[in-house]
Amino acid sequence: MTTETRLRIAMQKSGRLSEETQQLLKRCGLKLNVADRRLLAHVTNMPIDIMRVRSSDIPGLVMDGVCDLGIVGDNTLEETALERELLGEKSDYIKTTGLNFGGCRLSLAMPEEFEYTGIKSLNGLRFATTYPQLLKRFAQQSGIELDYCLLKGSVEVAPRVGLADGICDLVSTGATLEANGLKEVEVIYRSKASLIQSTSTMTDKKQEILDTLLPRIQGVMKAKE
Ligand code: PRT
């Protein structure tokens, strides 16, 4: 669990969000030893600790009160929240502020030759995805039945090897889809990175630190616009 007096922030250890998150914290004036490869690194000039973990672990760490704050993609956050809701597990968090990096969309994509005539033409098809809950919610809201198979990586090869009819995956430039002979047919969720906060761990002291940090984060984001 977290301490009473130091704010613990979870960030992605390595991957698409890690560089920008690190830059953001640096621009906020946090002095971090980047060579420090420990799981928990101390910020030397503020009572803050940084926990470097996998992106997919960040929502759970905040929701369970292991970390006070986390910087994570809305896609990962929403998928975890839906999964926890399904399992009846608690998810004590609030989204403190949106951040203007990590932009992408979760889309359904089909082989180029597929004749897409609207959402109904996807009825009964099977999609490979890392985001089954977001896919299921989309199917429910659209009034269609979709099947899925869970893949944690290389989702885009699934149709070619006969594992699925299409994919439900994150897209930013569209180059990966094109390289794999796939076309985007529906955007089901738009995502950016967000700062999230535990609702169960904040002490007065930690709130004070956040009150100093948050305007700096918002200032850095504004300067980037
Ligand atoms: O840390 P962990 O391993 O748990 O997470 P991860 O595997 O999701 O890490 P990573 O680094 O791939 O993604 C971290 C977060 O970055 C995601 O959760 C999104 O919020 C955000 N993000 C933004 C993206 C992309 N853009 C993106 N394009 N995450 C993944 N992609 C992948 C996509 O899955 C596909 O393989 O990039 C490919 C498509 O890119 P384009 O440019 O070819 O369309």
Automatic annotation (TrEMBL):
What Enzyme Commission number does this protein have? 2.4.2.17
Its GO biological process terms? L-histidine biosynthetic process
Record's family?
Belongs to the ATP phosphoribosyltransferase family. Long subfamily.
* Domain ATP phosphoribosyltransferase catalytic intervals: 54-219
Q: In which pathway does it act?
A: Amino-acid biosynthesis; L-histidine biosynthesis; L-histidine from 5-phospho-alpha-D-ribose 1-diphosphate: step 1/9
Name the chain's protein.
ATP phosphoribosyltransferase
Q: What does this protein need as cofactor?
A: Mg(2+)
Interval of the full protein contained in this chain: 1 to 225 of 299
Task: Name the source's superkingdom.
Answer: Bacteria
Q: Where in the cell is it found?
A: Cytoplasm
| Organism lineage string | Bacteria, Pseudomonadati, Pseudomonadota, Gammaproteobacteria, Alteromonadales
Description of how activity is regulated: Feedback inhibited by histidine.
Q: Name one GO cellular component term.
A: cytoplasm
What are the UniProt keywords, alphabetically? Amino-acid biosynthesis, ATP-binding, Cytoplasm, Glycosyltransferase, Histidine biosynthesis, Magnesium, Metal-binding, Nucleotide-binding, Transferase
Q: Which reaction does it catalyse?
A: 1-(5-phospho-beta-D-ribosyl)-ATP + diphosphate = 5-phospho-alpha-D-ribose 1-diphosphate + ATP
Molecular function GO terms recorded: ATP binding; ATP phosphoribosyltransferase activity; magnesium ion binding
Q: What task does this protein carry out? A: Catalyzes the condensation of ATP and 5-phosphoribose 1-diphosphate to form N'-(5'-phosphoribosyl)-ATP (PR-ATP). Has a crucial role in the pathway because the rate of histidine biosynthesis seems to be controlled primarily by regulation of HisG enzymatic activity.
